[in-house]
Specification:
single chain; mainly alpha; Growth Hormone, Chain: A; 17 helices; transmembrane; MFS_Transporters; transmembrane helix; cell membrane; MFS_dom
């Protein structure tokens, strides 16, 4: 939180101040994630214990939420291009309020699924709208001499991570009452966001033109350089998703339980909040956008290689957790290089007036890659191959993705 506040208030003598709109959008990301992560970490346990769903059905519900969000980002981005970000963001907030309120009272499978789909689609509306406008404003900030666009997008990343850190803590406190209270608190946060944006978000943003939705998807599918970026970013997301698939299995093997996972996740969040801006500043003076992504993908590959190198020794206890900690640190450092750069690269590849569509498509296309790759990864981890082999294969994926990145 300190890093975020410092970044927003950086003295004008060092670089141009962020515009009021940029500050609003960055703080929006903070509020969005606080409201979302108040609820999400506690959803699966609620569905299993309170609602009585079988494990496979809980997984299906969580998968539907991801699909209704990531898979439909392209829809939200296209709507933002057509109607502007204000109505799309406000509509998303209304749907998120309704979804959380509904989830708090849902007690049957079909009602839970309806609420979860509504929650996911809400994010598919407001997230690409906000992300695309942050990217557009970051380019304008850079062209006005305010510093690299990656710094603005790094602030956006820090805001999101800070919200993801604060939200579960608040949710854990409220869970002592009941899950319904947690859901209503999440809805309440979005009520505040809706009120603030109704008041502060401009009706018309200078320089933003509105375009028809028709024909946009064809442009995306014919844009080979953009699709190449999506493949590289998708490989990173597939690797990052191993925090929730491969890492828990490794921690369970080394420690005999998954209790250390919470500390490893906290380590990742702490690294992003404290080091994202210095890392972005350092990389911005040395690397182009492409070289930053190359360096990030190499760090991600190295994260898997560390565990692969240690697996033959079969260490357990504290020593057995050291490779997992190294994995988290290297993966997070790679994330800090890749995430802001990928968003910063999209404006250079998108057609005029289509930035929302392209921002949404980046998430949707890479999300499909993760969806397809995760099942294969699960089979790989359960294949019975020598312990180091799955980790070596996973290390090869981000390294191979470097060759897919656009050359210019």
């Amino acid at each position: 939180m300190t890093a975020l506040w410092t970044g927003l208030r950086e003295p004008a003598r060092r670089r141009a101040r962020l515009s009021p709109l940029l500050r609003l959008l960055i703080l929006t990301q903070l509020a969005f994630n606080i409201g979302f992560f108040v609820v999400l970490p506690f959803l699966s346990e609620h569905l299993g214990r309170a609602v009585g769903m079988a494990g496979w059905l809980v997984g299906l519900v969580l998968g539907l939420r991801t699909f209704s969000q990531q898979g439909l980002f392209v829809v939200g981005g296209a709507l933002a291009d057509r109607y502007g970000i204000r109505p799309v963001v406000l509509a998303g907030c209304v749907l998120r309020i309704a979804g959380f309120g509904w989830l708090g009272f849902a007690a049957q499978t079909w009602t839970v699924i309806g609420a979860v789909l509504l929650i996911g689609f809400a994010a598919a509306l407001f997230s690409p709208s906000v992300e695309s406008e942050v990217a557009r404003q970051a380019v304008a900030h850079e062209e006005a001499g305010g510093g690299p666009r990656t710094r603005v997008l790094a602030l956006f990343t820090v805001a999101g991570q800070a919200g993801a850190f604060v939200g579960p803590l608040l949710g854990a406190l409220l869970l002592s009452v009941d899950f319904r209270t947690v859901c209503l608190a999440g809805a309440g946060i979005f009520v505040l966001v809706l009120a603030g944006h109704t008041w502060l978000l401009p009706q018309h943003i200078p320089g933003r033109t509105r375009v028809h939705v028709r024909g946009g998807l064809g442009l995306v599918l014919r844009n080979r350089r953009f699709l190449a970026l999506c493949c590289g970013y998708g490989a990173y997301l597939l690797a990052y998703n191993q925090l929730y698939l491969a890492l828990p299995a490794e921690v369970e093997r080394a420690a005999g339980s998954q209790a250390p996972l919470a500390w490893l996740f906290a380590l990742s969040s702490l690294l992003v909040v404290t080091a994202q801006l210095p890392v972005t500043r350092w990389a911005g003076t040395r690397f182009t956008l492409r070289r930053s992504m190359v360096a990030g993908l190499l760090l991600v590959a190295a994260a898997f290689a560390v565990v692969a190198a240690a697996r033959p020794a079969d260490w357990t206890g504290t020593a057995g957790l050291l490779p997992a900690a190294g994995f988290v640190v290297l993966l997070t450092l790679g994330q800090m290089l890749i995430a802001p750069v990928a968003r910063a690269w999209v404006p250079d590849l998108a057609e005029d007036g289509r930035l929302g569509l392209y921002t949404g498509a980046l998430s949707s296309v890479s999300g499909l890659i993760v969806l397809a790759g995760s099942s294969v990864t699960g089979l790989l981890l359960d294949s019975g191959l020598p312990a180091a082999v799955p980790w070596l294969v996973l290390a090869a994926l981000p390294a191979a993705a470097i060759g897919l990145l656009p050359r210019r």
